[in-house]
Each structure stands twice: as structure tokens, then as C-alpha cells.
Amino acid sequence: MMLEVKGMEVQLATNGKEAVDLHRVGACFNLILMDKDMPVMNGYQATKELRDMGVNCPIIGVTSSTEEAELEEFMEAGLDDCICKPLTIEKIACYLPGVASTSTANLGDDYDDYEEVEDENADRASNTNSNNN
To answer: Which domains does the chain have, with CATH numbers?
Structure first.
């Protein structure tokens, strides 16, 4: 995944319930990328549940939707912001400490391999922890 190129520790949850369960067992993250459309528990429900549990790290919604009503509903669930697919390192960098000030030119030759997250990977909730650089 493109965040691993920058030395970030990344944990993937394939659905919203897995994302919530990670926090139930004590996992802590600096940032959560939450897809809107996931099986078992969607991004709306997972975000609301995480906020109800007291999770206060930034949760950034990820969606392919441009429907204003859908985006508003997603934000009301407790998001800090929302970005549209396809994901790029530029879209995510401003949310990650230590990455925002680094231009993508400094990512190295492997950057091109990670420029965009494939749809199959983007359709998961991604939890990132940058404490382990």
C-alpha cells in the first residue's frame, strides 16, 4: 500500500465491523480512512460506533460518491473530512504527520507503483499508525 512506502504501519479492515473490533481490543491509531460502502457494517455505522466508543483520532471518509446528501450524511456520522476516490498520496498526505511536508518527489522510485490505490484495496477501511516510523 502506498502509505507503507513512507514507513507508515497500516492495518486493513475488510469491513466496518472489523474496524470497530480493532478498537474494541485496544488498538489505537493516528488516522482512520473509512470507506463509505463496505459489507457487514458500512462506513456510516462504523464511524458513528467508533465516535460513540470515544475514538477521537481523525476519521477521513473515502467515497466515490459526489451526491451532496450522501456526503452530508457521512460527515454527520462523525467524520473529520471526506475525500473522493481514487486515492493518491497527495490526497492523504495532509492528514499524516511528517508526510504533509514531504513532496512526492522524495518518495523514491517505488512511488509510481503506489500512486493510486486499486479499487479492491480502496474498498476497505484503512487504519494507519505513524508512530512506528
So the answer is: 2-132 (3.40.50.2300)
